[in-house]
Amino acid sequence: MTTSDDKAVFPLPERRLRLGIVGGGRGSFIGKVHARGARLSNRWDVVAGALSSRPDVARASGREWLLAEDRTYTDYREMAEREAARPDGIDAVAITTPNNSHHAIACAFMDKGIDVISDKPLTTTLADALDLVRRQKETGLVFGVTYAYAAYAMVRQAREMVRKGLLGKLRQIHVEYFQEWALTPPAAAGAGAQWRVDPAIVGPTFTTGDIGTHCHHLGAFVCGRPLTQVRAEFHTLGPPKPLEDTAFMHVRYEGDIPGTIMISQAAAGTHCGIRLRVFGEKAGLEWYQEEPEILHFRPFGEPARILTRGEGAGIGAHAARFVHMPRGHPEALSDAWGNLYEEFAIAIEARRAGRTLPEGLLEYPTVLDGALGVSFIEAAAASNDAGGAWMGCSLD
C-alpha cells in the first residue's frame, strides 16, 4: 500500500541530464549559482553554454567552465539550433541573463523542444509571461523558475505544517526582505547594479521585481494561497536612481487573508534578510533566511517550539527528502539550489521518458508561478502610480 510518505520519495536518476546555460560568464554571480546547484544535485552535467553576448568573454568563460570548444557558443540562437541537432544535445537550458532577454531566449529553446529553467522575474511584461505560459501548455515542456528560497528544507516543512492544518485557519501572512547594497550609487556598484535600475532592461520596477517577487512567491507557496490584491507605495531611499529601491505593500491572499510585504535594498546593515511570518487561529510560524535551519512554531497559549532541520523529531516527509546532513552540520542556500535542480531534473527526466509522476511529488516553481510574479510586479507598479489604490493580481 502506498502512503503519503512513500509519495514523497524521489525516484533514482537514470543518468545525469545535460544542462546548457545562457548568460553567467565573467562577472556574473547568478550563472555560477545555477551551475553549482545543478552539480550539487548529482543529476546534471553542465556541458554547453552561451555565457556572454560578448564573443571574447563567452569564449574565455567557456574555457574557465571547462566546456568543450565546440559547445561554447557566442549566440544563444546558434546554441539552440546546434544543441537540438546533436544526439547528445542538452536536455534543458538555464537562462541567467537580464530580465528583458528571458522571453526571446526561452522561445528559441522551446521551439527546439528543449526544456527551460529561467531566472526570475520571468519577463518584463505580463503579455510575454502569458505567451510563455501558452507555449508551455501547448508543448508540454518542463518550464521551471528559480525561486530558490522555496527549496529550503525548512520552507518545505512550513508548507507541510500549514497544509496539515497545524496553524488552523490562516489569519495573516507577512513577508519582508531587506538588503543594503543599493545604498552604493549604481555607477559605483558595477555593471550588474546598473542594468538592474534601467527600465528598458528590467521593466517597471527595480526592487519589486528583484526581491519583491521572492516575497510574493514565498508567502503564496508556504500558505498555498495565491496573492490576489496589492496596495503599494514605492520609495527611493538610497542614492538617486530611475526606479524604486524600497516598497511597502498591503496585500490580500485568496480567502481575503490580509498581509504585508516590506522590501528594501537600501536598508543599512542588512544583507539577505528575507523573513516569513504566518499566523493562524491556532499557531504562528516564522522562518528567517539568514538562519535557514530553524523554524519557529508558536502555538496559541502553549510554549514556543523551535524545529531544526534534520531527520525525524517532527520533520515531515516533504522536508526530509531535502535533508542531506545530520543536525549540527549546516546546510545553506547552495543546498536549496541543489534541491531545486533535483526537482527540475526529475520532472524533465519523466517528461522525456513519457512517465507520469505521483501527484504532489514535485513542488518546484513553474512558468505559471513566474507569470503570477510578473502580474504582481505590474499590479504593484500600477498601485503606486495610482496613489496606493488596490490592484488585482491575476492572470485573467
Helix and strand arrangement:
Blueprint: E1 17-22, H1 30-40, E2 44-50, H2 55-64, H3 76-85, E3 92-95, H4 102-110, E4 115-118, H5 126-139, E5 143-145, H6 153-163, E6 170-178, H7 191-196, H8 199-202, H9 207-223, E7 227-235, E8 246-253, E9 257-264, E10 273-280, E11 283-288, E12 294-299, E13 305-308, H10 317-320, H11 333-353, H12 367-385, E14 391-392
Structure description:
With 396 residues, the chain is an alpha/beta fold. It folds into two domains: 6-148, NAD(P)-binding Rossmann-like Domain (Rossmann fold); 151-325 and 358-385, Dihydrodipicolinate Reductase, domain 2, CATH 3.30.360.10. Helices cover 34% and strands 21% of the residues. It is built from twelve helices and 14 strands. The protein has helices spanning 30-40, 55-64, 76-85, 102-110, 126-139, 153-163, 191-196, 199-202, 207-223, 317-320, 333-353, 367-385; strands at residues 17-22, 44-50, 92-95, 115-118, 143-145, 170-178, 227-235, 246-253, 257-264, 273-280, 283-288, 294-299, 305-308, 391-392. The strands form two sheets. Strands 13-12-11-10-6-9-8-7-14 form a nine-stranded mixed sheet. It has a five-stranded parallel sheet with strand order 2-1-3-4-5, with helices on both faces. The longest helix is centred in the last third of the chain and has 21 residues, at 333-353. It is globular and about 65 Å long. The chain starts with 16 loop residues before the first strand and ends with a strand. The mean pLDDT is 95.
